[in-house]
Write a structure and sequence with these properties.
Blueprint: H1 2-28, H2 35-38, H3 45-55, H4 61-73, H5 87-122, H6 127-141, H7 144-158, H8 176-210, H9 213-220, H10 225-236, H11 238-263, H12 268-277, H13 281-309
Helix pairs in contact: 1-13, 5-6, 5-8, 5-11, 5-13, 6-8, 7-8, 7-11, 8-11, 11-12, 11-13, 12-13
């Protein structure tokens, strides 16, 4: 197992390098540059060129990339072109809210999807199965921004039971209870979209396992339906479900960008939108690199969880 993990990490290094190359060139191909966004309109063209030269923006793209890569190797992510704040500080401030949102959303998604998927599989072709199938299609089909706006309209404007956005109430000292109220809507919006797709995987995986001979033998021996379904069948159906967990991380990252902007959640998603608007290349590169590391790590964790769910799997 240890050798397998080391091998996967070594393979991830060139993958990350390729991601940085692709992201850097795509970001720099966008029209304009950061100086255009915050220089006084009355400043002369000569002063603008001096500012670009000072920031190194007049250098060829490949030189800018290697300079950024060299600084990255030393642990320096650069500074923000819009706020002059170190990128590391900006990322560290926004990472915790995003991890809270993504972690809560993932828990909500699987707390919803696994029981519903099991019920749908055990009651195949019943009205319960059709209802859960409709729920899963709605969860996948409704965009996050539409569901978020609908949730704000119903729960914040009409019912007035939840805040419209933010992480804490302005003017309050803040606390877990206040944060929890602000977390409910964005976490459910993000989690419901993930749950919609996971329900289908759980259902199909359970249907495949429920037809196995060993479950019929367990039933013939007198084991209860609950034990057969949730102990024997579910564990053997976990392999495809674990695969979905690894696939859900990129979806969570992409969904967080939209969800955080709608609910004004102060995380990396909102910072991404702000950085795009201000053409803050250094911040965007750091966020993209962090997202790539998260996806690669989640895939590695998924492979490790395979052996936990099924002891027959060995990594040589």
């Amino acid at each position: 197992m240890f050798q397998y993990i080391i091998r996967r990490i070594l393979i991830a290094i060139p993958v990350l390098l390729g991601v940085t190359i692709f992201n850097f060139f795509i970001i720099n191909l966008a029209p304009g540059n950061p100086v255009d966004m915050y220089v006084n309109p009355d400043v002369s063209a000569e002063d603008i060129e001096i500012k670009k030269e000072a920031l190194g923006l007049n250098d060829p793209i490949y030189i800018q990339y290697f300079r950024w890569l060299g600084n990255l190797a030393k642990g320096d992510f650069g500074f923000s072109y819009s706020t002059y704040e170190p990128v590391v500080n900006m990322i560290s401030e926004r990472m915790v809210p995003t991890l809270i949102l993504m972690g809560t959303s993932l828990i909500i998604a699987y707390l919803i999807a696994i029981p519903i998927g099991i019920i749908s599989a055990t009651k195949q072709y019943s009205w319960t199965d059709y209802f859960t199938t409709t729920f899963s299609f709605l969860g996948v089909s409704i965009p996050h921004f539409f569901m978020g706006l609908g949730a704000i309209y119903i729960f914040a404007i009409i019912l007035q039971v939840l805040p419209t956005g933010g992480m804490y109430t302005l003017g309050n000292d803040g606390g877990f209870a206040d944060m929890f109220l602000h977390l409910i809507m964005p976490a459910f919006v993000l989690g419901t979209g993930i749950a919609g797709s996971v329900v289908r995987y759980v259902r199909s995986s359970m249907l495949e396992v429920l037809g196995q001979d060993y479950l019929r033998t367990a039933k013939a021996k007198g084991l209860g339906e609950f034990i057969i379904t949730n102990k024997h069948a579910l564990r053997n159906a976990l392999i495809p479900i674990i695969t979905v967990i690894g696939m859900d991380i990129p979806l969570l990252i992409g969904g967080a960008v939209v969800t955080e902007q709608i609910f004004q959640w102060p995380g990396l998603g909102q910072l991404t939108i702000q950085s795009i608007g201000s053409r803050d290349y250094s911040v965007l590169m750091a966020i993209n690199l962090l997202a790539a590391v998260a996806v690669l790590f989640s895939n590695l964790l998924t492979d490790i969880l395979y052996s936990v769910a099924d002891p027959r799997i060995k990594y040589n």
